[in-house]
Amino acid sequence: MNTSAFSVFTEKPIIFTDLMELTITDYAFGMRPGVAMPDKQILELLGEERVRKLVSDHYDLLVESEIKNLFPGNPVALDAAKERAADFFIQILGGPQYYNENRGNPMMTRRHMPFKITPSARNIWLGFYKELLLGLDLPEHLIQSYWNYLNVFSTWMVNTKE
Fold it and tell me: pTM for the full model?
């Protein structure tokens, strides 16, 4: 059975299904669980443009949130951050190696060290992705695959205790 609601963040309808569980897993501080790559069919179905829109929409929510201090306030710098993040996710989804070509090896944990990322900041970051993923017109198993990746990948970025 599908149910729908309106997002408090985007004011767009979102559809929830009984089968899909996008649960945020709490990990002990400093844990580095293995990360399963998301299904490459996600990129095949969404295309690069929609992946870039997903990332852009995510950043737009983040810069209005209580963790906005972790993201560029300058619109030009924000657009550059969106592009880098989209390049990374396109690459992770099996697309062209834009991130490696423009920035080198991702080394995301190291790249995020200058920012104080707490478990609660991770939860906010994931919460916005959860909302956006549930609004995508993708098969549930693909949304779950992407979520599983984000849920584990994001814990690697946590570098500050509450």
Answer: 0.85
